[in-house]
Write a structure and sequence with these properties.
By secondary structure, the chain is an alpha/beta fold. It has 12 helices and 26 strands. It binds shikimate-3-phosphate.
């Protein structure tokens, strides 16, 4: 699919971005190993999360869609998982693959995982290492164990593990394996990553304690089925909000948005740049904080970002880079080398994309430097199978002169299937076109 975007008048109105991707994956996985039936409302029906639902079905768990955003999962405990008959194809989803590798590592079964071109380039050694230390056998391709990967699960022992990078996927995989291990499992993080797994495990009755950067799980407590409500994904809501910061005269609200502090780094970063972003209607639902975010344009100035803030906005950094093109001065984003192993090398791809559109953007080994403000002009951008790259190009296209053409934009459905419809409803000039061979 090709997406064509032109600059437009003010964006106005409200948007309710679809369900949080990280929480949707975890809700399905934990419901699948709980005892009883869980109803998940607000489940993100995007390609990534549907792959996880399919994988759970292949592991023998009944997972039934009820309407477009509700899933009913009939779990019967960890013991009820069955070895799948074929490889689990996780599509584009690193989260799905990595969390499920952890889950099956503690079960007496062999499971092969495959993925699309982008996922087949992503390193799984970060998951294999702790799982091997716990007693599982993991095979993959090359030095970094890229997919296809095979996990031979079995008897695991609990470990204390300190991953070298702040990664919620690694932390979650180890904790999920820890549910089947003998003895307690502790993960000690270098910086706090998103904590949805810990919140959900605790709410479902797991024996889990969190002290600063350390999480300890003591196995042997069956998980209770729980009704779950998935808030709107701040990583998706960030796109229309960013558009409102950049397009003159705009005023956009994103309602029911996840405001978990391990995910709100972008809000802090933008406020540090002078952005007119307001938080309202704050509350807690199903163990997660949420609220409304309102964005309006205003003068932005450059800032420097690094350290603990980076994991709290890791998926929003490409979008921050787009916004930084319109800020006065040089914005520096460091300590973000993890961006190079996402759905694409987001450091290289963003530097290239922004430069192609006339911005002054430079790669650093561990991030980006962008000097603004710079007028942007349209370009033809290849999404490279990375949903966030495609959406970043669209937001940049809203303030560029001419028509920005985004090829391969179908990957947007990986996380935000209603992206184009939501932007159009706010007044954006963007149209989808089916690609013809
Ligand atoms: C995710 C964790 C992050 C993030 C990804 C979703 C999760 O990855 O980039 O989009 O749901 O656990 P890492 O764990 O690799 O940092």
């Amino acid at each position: 699919m090709t997406l064509r975007v032109r600059s437009c008048g003010p964006l106005r109105g409200w948007v309710r971005a679809p369900g949080d991707k990280s929480i949707s994956h975890r809700a399905a996985i934990l419901a699948a190993i709980a005892e009883g039936t869980s109803r998940i409302e607000g489940f993100l029906t995007c390609d990534d999360c549907l792959r996880t639902a399919d994988a759970l079905r292949a592991l023998g768990v009944p997972v039934d869609p009820i309407g477009s955003e509700t899933l009913e999962v009939r779990g019967a405990g960890l013991e009820a998982l069955r070895e799948p008959r074929a490889a689990l194809d996780m599509g584009n989803s690193g989260t799905g693959m990595r969390l499920l590798m952890g889950l099956v590592a503690g079960r007496p079964m062999t499971v092969e995982f495959t993925g699309d071109e982008s996922l087949s380039r992503r390193p799984m050694d970060r998951i294999a290492e702790p799982l091997r230390l716990m007693g599982a056998r993991v095979e993959g391709q090359g030095e970094r164990l890229t997919p296809p990967v095979t996990v031979h699960g079995g008897d695991l022992g609990g470990i204390t593990y300190a991953p070298p990078m702040a990664s919620a996927q690694v932390k979650s995989a180890v904790l999920l394996a820890g549910l089947s291990a003998v003895g307690e499992t502790t993960v000690v993080e270098v910086a706090k990553s998103r904590d949805h797994t810990e919140r959900m495990l605790a709410a479902m009755g797991a024996d889990l304690s969190v002290e600063g950067l350390q999480v300890t799980l003591r196995p042997g407590h069956p998980l209770r089925a729980t009704p779950m409500q998935v808030p709107s994904d701040i990583s998706s809501a960030a796109f229309p909000l960013a558009a409102a910061l950049l397009v003159e005269g705009s005023d956009v609200r994103a309602t029911d948005t996840l405001l978990n502090p391990t995910r709100t780094g972008l809000v802090e970063a933008l406020k540090a740049m002078g952005a007119a972003l307001e938080v309202a209607d704050e509350r807690e639902e199903a163990g997660e904080p949420l609220g409304a975010l309102r964005a309006r344009p205003g003068a932005l100035h450059a800032a420097e970002f690094g350290g603990d803030l980076i994991p709290r906005m890791i998926d929003e950094i490409p979008l921050l880079a787009v916004i930084a093109t319109q800020a006065e001065g040089t914005t520096v984003i460091r300590d973000a080398a993890e961006l190079r192993v996402k759905e694409s090398d987001r450091v290289a791809v963003m530097a290239e994309l922004l430069s192609a559109m006339g911005a002054d953007a430079r790669e650093r080994a561990d991030g980006l430097e962008i000097t603004g403000p710079a007028p942007l002009h349209a370009a033809t951008i290849e999404a490279r199978g990375d949903h966030r790259i495609a959406m970043c190009a669209a937001i940049a296209g809203l303030i560029a002169s001419g028509e920005t053409v985004i090829e391969g934009a179908e990957c947007i459905a990986t996380s935000y299937p209603s992206f184009v419809a939501d932007l159009r409803a706010l007044g954006a000039d963007c149209i989808e076109e089916e690609a013809h061979d």
